[in-house]
Amino acid sequence: xxxxxxxxxxxxxxxxxxxxxxxxxxxxxxxxxxxxxxxxxxxxxxxxxxxxxxxxxxxxxxxxxxxxxxxxxxxxxxxxxxxxxxxxxxxxxxxxxxxxxxxxxxxxxxxxxxxxxxxxxxxxxxxxxxxxxxxxxxxxxxxxxxxxxxxxxxxxxxxxxxxxxxxxxxxxxxxxxxxxxxxxxxxxxxxxxxxxxxxxxxxxxxxxxxxxxxxxxxxxxxxxxxxxxxxxxxxxxxxxxxxxxxxxxxx
Length: 251
Fold this sequence. Notes:
This protein is α/β, with parallel strands linked by helices. About 35% of the residues lie in helices and about 30% in strands.
């Protein structure tokens, strides 16, 4: 069985790492380059950077940051935020990103998924899906969770897989920042219906939540932010616990 991956996520706003609850109430969590270096040194398998600020300078800031991080880490990292073209991806990959994450731009123009996977390979293309459970149905949301669409999580995930996405990063808006655990029912269904890796996001609060999302949610990777940023969980301890509970991890 493939090793399960632990992935710290750095939400970037104005060059700083921030973290909120249910996508709002952001607070500062530190310097992204320093955090990235620390995570790489303490056993993170990958990193995800999401530029959540909507400023016009987003691309320039992100490129500089990607370059700075690439100089400090030796693990794969994914960059997302404001990516809407082959050219955007080209610039990020040239500056040291290993993968890109697209969300709103994929919904607005699904053909983008095809274009990116054809040009760079599906292993480079992560489609992030933010979804909220409303009246029993998982509805895809855009623009940092502010804009609901008419898309169903599972239908959309299947479509982007067919278009060439290499991974799905699913964030449950209901669980995000609550520290009550991941949305394992939805994750398990995604894992059963798709043939590409699923990254669980939203809800990590303790080590058992990671165990549960790998066992019950059948996730391939688990992403978290605040529990790592604020030292509530240290990655080496988490991996030891996962190993103890029979979950394959890279130590």
